[in-house]
Structure formats: structure tokens, C-alpha cells
Write a structure and sequence with these properties.
The chain has about 270 residues and is of the alpha/beta class. Helix content is about 35%, strand content about 25%. The protein contains 9 helices and 12 strands. The strands form 3 sheets. It has a 6-stranded mixed β-sheet with strand order 8-9-10-3-11-12, sandwiched between helices. The longest helix is centred in the C-terminal third of the chain and has 16 residues, at about 195-210. The protein binds adenosine-5'-diphosphate and magnesium ion (MG). Adenosine-5'-diphosphate binds near residues 54, 59 and 60. It is a peripheral membrane protein. It comes from Sinomonas flava. GO terms for molecular function: ATP binding.
Amino acid sequence: MSAPAPEGTHRIPSGAGELVRIEGVHKYYGQHHVLRGIDMTVRQGEVAVLIGPSGSGKSTLLRCINHLETISAGRIFVDDELIGYREHGGRLHELRVKEIARQRRNIGMVFQRFNLFGHKTAVENVMEAPVQVKGHDRASARKRALELLDRVGLSDRANHYPAQLSGGQQQRVAIARALAMDPELMLFDEPTSALDPELVGDVLNVMKDLAASGMTMIVVTHEIGFAREVGDTLTFMDGGVVVESGNPRDVIANPQHERTKGFLSKVL
Ligand code: ADP
Ligand code: MG
């Protein structure tokens, strides 16, 4: 038996080792039906790679997982906890802002655009949330931030401002910043799409090390080599549905659907 749920949360027992469970998720923007019944699970320590054409709903799905978007139907669980809602009398009621913020702290997100604070140095960017949100003292937050910058290969750039860093370096600072909150899940939304080609490898290597350390990750990317090498699963989305999902090598070598074949032939 697990411990009773804290006030305001809703827990249900999941399958062994499941960290993320997405059940029948729909999302409308007005009349626009963007997610059309998504089911997906990600196990603890897994790297789930998500691919699909522009507009297929990949970013929307990531944004639903940390409740940056409200879902129109379905349920999302992270670590057995219903995200964004509590269930009462068979209906879902949106959680209070404070509860949503608490859930989000467990989920790190890295965007295509790095969104660093331009007036803060690399180390200050990484320290910011632990100090402001978690109330850590500045000295210990700085020490940890320097360790994280070292981990992403930027110990010599700690006192640089974002404008003094390359795009790849900024993205690695953004990864360190997300890790500073000790998330149990990391979401990456096309983290290398805005980078010059020669800077992509360093960012992918940091993500690869993170995966090897056991972090659970959902990664939207067109880097098929990364999917093949690092992904535990590869999911192809199109038109707001999961068209197919499986072992990355199998999906890449032997796609089952015409739409997957067509997409892969363009990105391979
Ligand atoms: P992807 O990341 O796969 O390119 P998105 O999730 O960004 O796809 O978008 C899926 C669809 O939802 C697109 O048609 C897009 O125009 C639409 N969309 C995304 N965000 C919004 C929004 N905030 N308001 C209205 N429509 C949106
Ligand atoms: Mg997107």
C-alpha cells in the first residue's frame, strides 16, 4: 500500500515503473481539434522520442504534460499524480495555482528558444529558481549551479552573460537551469532546432549523458540519429494522433504506416 495522498492530490496505482501516463488526451483550441485521443506511457528512466510533421501537436502535448495548457479531455499522470486537476464526483476540477506550481517544479522543460535571463550570468540563471522558488541560500545554490554548469561542459563560462555565449552554450545553460530544480522528468521541445549545425552535437551529448544518468525524458526532435541511439521508444505523431510507436530501430528501419514512411524519408 502506498502512503495516503496529500491534500489536493489524486493518486492511482500505476503499472510498475511508469512515470508518465497519458490517457485519452484531447485538446481543442476553440474549434481546432489539435490532440485527438493521445495514449502514451513513459517508464522511469526511459527516453521517449517524439517525431512528426510541423503542426501535428507535439509541442501542445508537451505543454499539456506540465499543464501549461489545459486539456479538453483525458487524464495525464506523472508519478501517479493527476496533473493539473483533482477528481471529485467523477469530474475533474482544476487545481489551485499553488498546486499546479508544485507539480511543475518536478518537470523540467527545455524549449527551442533558450529563454535565459539576458541580464544575468550563466551561473545566476541556473541559481535563480532554487533561490527564488525553493528558498535555497545563495551560497549553496551557487555551488550547485557551478556543478551543473560543469556537468554541461560550461564551467569556464559561469560568469558570461547569454549574449556572450553561442546558441549551443545558451541551450546547455538552459538544461543546467532546468536540472537545478531536481526534476523527475525532463521535457525537450526541439532543443537543437534553432542551433547552427556545428553546435547541435554538444547539446545532444549533454542530453545523452543525462539519459545515461537515468533521467526520464520526453524529447521532441528531428535528430533521428539521437532517436536511434538514445531513445527507448520512438513515437510518430501526425494530425493529433499517435500513428505508431515502438523500438526506435524498428520504427526507423521498418515503419508500419505510409505516413511514417513518408515523414522518415524526408528527415533521414
Ligand atoms: P507541433 O509542435 O507538432 O509543430 P503544435 O502543438 O505547436 O504542433 O501545434 C499543433 C496545432 O495547434 C497547430 O495547428 C497549431 O497552429 C495549433 N496551435 C498551437 N498552439 C496554439 C494556440 N495557442 N492557439 C491556437 N492554436 C494553436
Ligand atoms: Mg512544436
